[in-house]
Amino acid sequence: MRELTTKQKVFVEEYLSDFNASRAARKAGYSAKTAETIAYQQLQKTSVRAALSSALAKRAAKSERDALDVLLDIRRVVTRAMAEGDHRSALKGLELEGKHLGMFERHNAQRRPLVSIVDFTNGQRSVTAGVTADHESPSADGQD
């Protein structure tokens, strides 16, 4: 794998701050005019993706939390909000879960991980993981 250039290293650092690729490209020194295109190109490069994955893994290890921890917390908030009749907070939690699962993407032909929480009553959790089938959402008029 190729070593990252100085601009790519800055791009990775900036991208990790707010996950805005165009802004990261501009802060890395790329032209504002081409930042969106450059950002997309950088995110397609294997070496940049590997650097991002590595940095995210380090961040997760340091915080000792992962996506499942966050989803469990969101689920608890949603459950409590529904019990208290706070539908606004419950809907926000459900929206975050849906975004995480990619439910709002119009054309989603990727295989998504399916995680179902089986039990976490005693402070322990049991998880079943799999992969959902490929699918596409049909358009309203039946044409794509």
Record keyword descriptors for this entry.
144 residues; mainly alpha; Arc Repressor Mutant, subunit A; 2 domains; 6 helices; elongated
Structural write-up:
- By secondary structure, this protein is mainly α.
- The protein folds into 2 domains: 58 residues, Arc Repressor Mutant, subunit A; 65 residues, no CATH class.
- It has 6 helices and 2 strands.
- Strands 1-2 form a two-stranded antiparallel sheet.
- The protein starts with 5 loop residues before the first helix and ends in a 13-residue tail after the last strand.
- The C terminus is likely disordered.
Short recap of the structure:
With 144 residues, the protein is mainly alpha-helical.
- The string of secondary-structure elements, in order, is HHHHHHEE
- The low-confidence parts are 115-119, 126-144
Helix percent band: 55-70%
Can you tell me the number of structural domains? Answer: 2
The pLDDT mean sits at: 78
Biggest beta sheet attributes: 2 strands, antiparallel
- What is the chains' assembly state? single chain
How many helical elements? 6
Q: In terms of structural class, how would the helical and strand content be classed?
A: mainly alpha
- Radius of gyration in whole Å, from Cα? 19 Å
Strand line-up of the largest beta sheet: 1-2
The percent range for strand residues is 5-15%
